[in-house]
Here is the input.
Amino acid sequence: MMKRFALMMALCLAPSAHAEDVAEVWKAKCKSCHGDDGKAKTKMGQKESIVDMSQPAWQQAQTDADIREMIADGSPRNRKMKPYKDKLSPQQLDALVGYIRTMKAK
Here is the structure.
């Protein structure tokens, strides 16, 4: 019975821990240019004319694979967006794609 309880607690806590992990990755690797909300209303975002990822048109135009590739391989449009494929795990890359999808403007 105790093992079931421990397993259930671990499963219940996992999504929360995952959400915190991806938020920390965003904060450490992405926030300085893209901002907290993906709108790129930062000094670097405005200097580099970084796209507002919360816009419905951008969200619709980009597939998950497009976003993942941009994170992994860097931006062909902006050389300052370096590749993260050697710095982030495949799971972190996928989590960031999901995180970006939550930034849709209302």
Summary: The CA atoms of residues 35 and 42 lie 6 Å apart.
